[in-house]
Structure formats: structure tokens, C-alpha cells
Amino acid sequence: MELWKKITIGIVLGLSGAYLLCSLLCFSPRREQPVCQHLLIEIADSAKKQFTTAHEMRQFILRSGLNPEGEPISENICCQLEELALQHPMARQVCVFPTPNGNIMVRVFQREPKLRVLGADNYYIDSDRRVMQVRSTTAADVPIVTGHVSQRMAQEELFDFIEWLEDDDFWMAQIEQIHVVGPRRIELIPRVGSGVILLGSLADYEQKLKKLKILYRDGFSKFGWKEYKEIDLRFRNQVVCR
Predict the structure, then answer these.
(1) Is residue 11 over pLDDT 80?
(2) Is the pLDDT of residue 80 over 90?
């Protein structure tokens, strides 16, 4: 009898606890999600480049029909905004997050041009080796490539060559334009003077330009080089000036 009494009391206490827990969960006031007051756009690197603006990016988002203002802020809507903003042709990276005062911030980092192909086709190759459109309102100070250059060449061999130039302050200051006459005929146009550097193919360009730098330092610094129309690096272990 004593055992049944204890079992009955245990059942009653268990049911009472379950009822209290259910009451707390069902009848306690639910915390409402904050509502978005404003959609804020920030172009994080606008001080360095201006390929898009906050106004343009806002219009790009709103034209899609996705307007979070007046809607509950959720992780889903932030993800949708991020995916949408990344579709803008000038966006490289996007970060979307709610602010403490009830806004949604869309922070955009722009694409970075590495070189510009100018000729029958007119486009940039960006730092991710992707084709990037040219905008008439903004120009980037990057090496110009002209002549018979394919998109693949611009994304591969020429991209690597320009990255090497960027790591050398001397050559980055010297070379203004790269002209592709053919696959094995590359010409470099210096910023100063009217001469042309005949590089030949891009094979062994480090060694070719290394010997020319020695000539600049030890030879041209004494007797000048502006009188030469061509500086030919196509021959092994020598530089021919004409």
C-alpha cells in the first residue's frame, strides 16, 4: 500500500510539473523580431575607387523587388540581400548584417582591375582573373594591353607578367603599355621617350628585363638612351640598341 502511495504522488507531481512547463511555453509573451527601419548601403573602399555608388547599389537591390524596410529582420533576408548584391557587376565581396538600431547594413567591396585590354575589345581583367566591364565614368590606373591579345592570354600569361611588374617598383614606373604583335612578339612602351622595348615572347622575361635594368643603371645613366628607337631583348645574353 505504501508503495502505491509513493507511485501515485510521483505521478501527480510529474503531471503537475509538465503542466507548469507547458503553461510557461504556451502562454508566456513571445519575443517579436525587430523590424527593419532602413536599408543602408556602404561602399567600403570608395576612397580608393569608384566603380559603383551606394545609390546605384541601392537601386540595383530595390529593382529586384527585395525591399527589407518594414519587414522583420531575419537571417534569411540578410542572406538574400548578400546573394543579390553579389550579382552586381562591380561587387567583389558583400557583407550584410543588422545594426543595433534596427537597420540592415549592406557593405560592398568593389572589384579591383589588374590590367586593361584596349582595342577591338575593351575590358579589364580584375585581381581574380575575371573579365570586368569598362565604365565611361571611371578609369583605373593600370597597365594598358593593346594589339592581338586574346582573353585567355590576358587572364593567364599577361596577368602573371603584370603581377611580376607590380612587385618591381623600377619596372612598374617604367612600363606604360604592353603591345602584342603576335604570340611571340611582345613590345613594351616606356613612359618616357619614344623608343620601344622588343621583349619577344614572354618566356624568360625576368632574365631579359634583368639585363636591361643593368644597362639602364650602368650604361644609359652615363650616355643616355632617348636617341634609340628600339631596345631589343630577344637575343640571349645581349641587348641590341638601334
Answers:
(1) no
(2) yes
Report the distance separating Cα 50 and Cα 98, nearest Å. Answer: 25
pLDDT tens across 137-168, in order? 788 889 999 999 999 999 999 999 999 999 99
Secondary-structure breakdown of the chain: helix, strand, coil percentages, each rounded to the nearest 5:
35, 25, 35
Residue 225, pLDDT above cutoff 80: no
Three state DSSP letters for 154-167 = HHCHHHHHHHHHHC
For residue 96, give the C-alpha cell: 550584410
The b-or-e profile of 54-63 (16+ CB within 10 A means b, else e) is eeebbebbee
CA distances from 86 to 60, 74, 89, 94, 112 (A): 11, 19, 8, 6, 14
**SS3 (DSSP) at 81:** helix
User: For strand 104-110 and strand 39-43, is the pairing parallel, antiparallel, or unpaired?
Assistant: parallel
Q: What is the pTM of this model?
A: 0.78
Which DSSP category does 135 fall into? Answer: B
- What is the DSSP track for 176-239? EEEEEEETTEEEEEESSSS-EEEEESSTTHHHHHHHHHHHIIIIIHHH-STT-SEEE--STT--
Is 199 a residue whose pLDDT tops 80? yes
**Hey, how many other C-beta atoms are within 10 angstroms of the C-beta on 228?**
16
Give CA–CA dist 191/48, Å, rounded.
23
Q: In what order do the strands lie in the sheet with 144-147?
A: 131-133, 122-126, 113-118, 144-147, 175-182, 185-190, 196-200, 230-232, 240-241
